[in-house]
Sequence to fold (409 residues):
Amino acid sequence: MSQTLPSRPRIALLIESSRAYGRGLLRGIAAYVRTHRPWSIYHQERAMGDAAPRWLADWKGDGIIARIESRKLIEQIQSLGLPTIDLRGLHDLPGIPLIETNDHPVVGHAINHLLERGFENFAYCGFAGANYSERRMRYFSQQLAEAGYTPHVYDDSTAHRTTDTTTIEAKGLLHEDDIARWIASLPKPVGLMACNDIRGQQILNACREIGVAVPDEVAVIGVDDDAVVCELCDPPLTSVAPNTEKIGYEAAALLEAMMAGHTVHAEKTFVDPIGVVTRQSTDALAIADRQVAAAVRYIREHAVDGITVENVLEQTRLSRSTLERRFAKLLGRSPKTEILRVQLDRVKQLLRETDFTLPKIASFTGFKHPEYMCAMFKQKTGSTPGEYRRRASLPGDDTATTAKRLATR
Fold:
């Protein structure tokens, strides 16, 4: 049975504005509100783990979207008895739906990015006690084991245990010497995944202190694509970008449905990341074969110019059969496949970051015909360029997706 709501429902957003992840969630919520009925938003600047604002205790509202960190905040929210969405996943909260980043493909993107650069040694560095970090560590170990690799994992077990995410991350600065010793012990070259960009920055600082070359000896990839943190790193940090705007949009749509009296059938929803944003911290090729390394670098610099395998052969002075045999041995793919992969990566970036037409994107990525580009994109990704753009670049109208999880009482 539907419920009568005020024309402008009052919604509390207990989401940090201090980091890119939280700001992305807020942008997604704003996108939903702009295209649907207006809300009266109650939000104040806050950091992860901050106490609930004082006004919440006596607040007369209609719904809450929160990143729930503490038990005290849980108690305060539950005492209000309002429809609530959690975007954190730190606690098991019966009756409160969770929408969160899907960490399995987050890790998959990071591993594939490092494999594409020829790495055969892998490492992971996270924060002990942080649920997202330990989950990503498990996925990292599992996925690499399936591919025949055993990663090196930083042992942070001596760190002080707390559920306060900000405290856990800040304490990482106190263990930089331990991290540096661990990095020094790793086989080189190594591809290293950090649990997030904050840990990635700490790793890069440790590498610089002990004179380890990044990315040639240690290539580092983080998670969250916090542009400020990543660009402050030296060198700038490559990172997996979550689709926070989509999470925020989905949360707003789900809260709207709950306030209208719908029943939520799925209490946990996980949203896939957008992909890897490449910066200098992984701009390396861990390939001992200098001719193959030169060929790969040439492809990555010129694939969008419409080069062919013949152009690559001219650069290496190898026969086609020799080059293809070495590519297969070292990279597990052919030169032609590598050219197409680089082209499609650029297509994805332009779909996410611009409103260029498909013919224009084709011309910028080395495809003579947009029809062929679209066919290859569909074959390799399973989606059309238009579907990818709608899913990855903008929150879009995902009410239909949310509706699948709902049933009218």
About this structure: The first helix runs from residue 20 to 35. Confidence is low (pLDDT under 50) at residues 396-409. Residues 103-242+276-282 form a domain with the Rossmann fold fold (CATH 3.40.50.2300). The chain has three domains: 10-101+244-273, 103-242+276-282, 290-390.
